[in-house]
Specification:
Elements: E1 7-9, E2 15-18, H1 19-25, H2 32-43, E3 51-57, E4 63-70, H3 71-81, H4 83-101, H5 110-145, E5 151-152, H6 153-160, H7 166-175, H8 187-191, E6 195-203, E7 209-217, H9 219-230
Length: about 230
């Protein structure tokens, strides 16, 4: 497998990726530090669990910083960044995780190298087929999450594509203490910019006016919901 982004081992033997290298591969134009802080917020990453700050002494004597990111966190960052580069990085990290899980080492013979090349080629072909099949869903996710507008909970269920619909999503968010019994978010989640409530009125056949409240979700809210639900699946 071609090395797209350098993967190394930390002191605990876990595979990690440099934030600087990932930032460069994704071709993001923001400052590395600014970009990474935004990724930490969007993906709800925890320092010393999902990443570790690394001090780098420059020849000038000044100190700069990089971040050693776990493969699972790097994969999530790639997904959230979207675009062709984001998809390439995500697929690459998936393959790296498989190789680490299967303890794939360097082939010792030419025959082993041929077998390994064939296995990786088959895996890549299968992964690309899955990507083509999922492309409409990926495009839909990117279109919604890149929008500045909020979307309803039915659309969120379609975007997340976790195998259940709007009703179950409401229930899971109530169980997680994100939504109240009336399916409206607790105020602290609104303050964080995850949700907003819209009010509408309607008149029944008797001429009585009623007020209806609807919960809408912003991009940050979709990212947060995905982070929460992944822990329960």
């Amino acid at each position: 497998m071609q090395e797209l982004i350098k993967v190394t081992k930390n002191e605990n033997g876990n595979s990690v990726v440099s934030a600087i290298n990932l930032h460069q591969f994704l071709q993001n134009t923001d400052n590395v530090s600014t970009w990474f802080k935004r990724q930490v917020e969007r993906a709800m990453l925890q320092e010393n669990e999902d990443y570790v700050r690394v001090a780098i002494l420059q020849p000038s004597g000044q100190t700069s910083y990089d971040y050693a990111i776990t493969l699972s966190s790097a994969k999530e960052i790639a997904m959230l960044n979207g675009g062709d580069k984001g998809k390439q990085a995500r697929l690459y990290f998936i393959e790296c995780e498989k190789m680490a899980k299967n303890n794939v080492g360097i082939p010792k013979t030419y025959a082993q190298a041929l077998l390994e090349a064939g296995r990786l080629a088959l895996q890549l072909e299968q992964t690309q087929a899955k990507l083509i099949e999922a492309q409409p869903k990926l495009d839909f996710y990117e279109a919604v999450t890149e929008s500045k507008d909020a979307v309803d909970m039915g659309t969120v269920a379609k975007v997340l594509n976790l195998g259940f619909g709007r009703t179950t999503l409401f229930q899971k968010l109530r169980d997680a203490k994100i939504l109240m019994k009336n399916n409206q978010p607790y105020q602290n989640f609104c303050d964080l910019g995850y949700f907003r409530i819209v009010e509408s009125t309607w008149i029944d056949k008797n001429g009585d006016q009623h007020i209806n409240f609807k919960t809408l979700v912003f991009q940050k809210g979709i990212d947060y919901i995905l982070k929460v639900l992944k822990k329960t699946i």
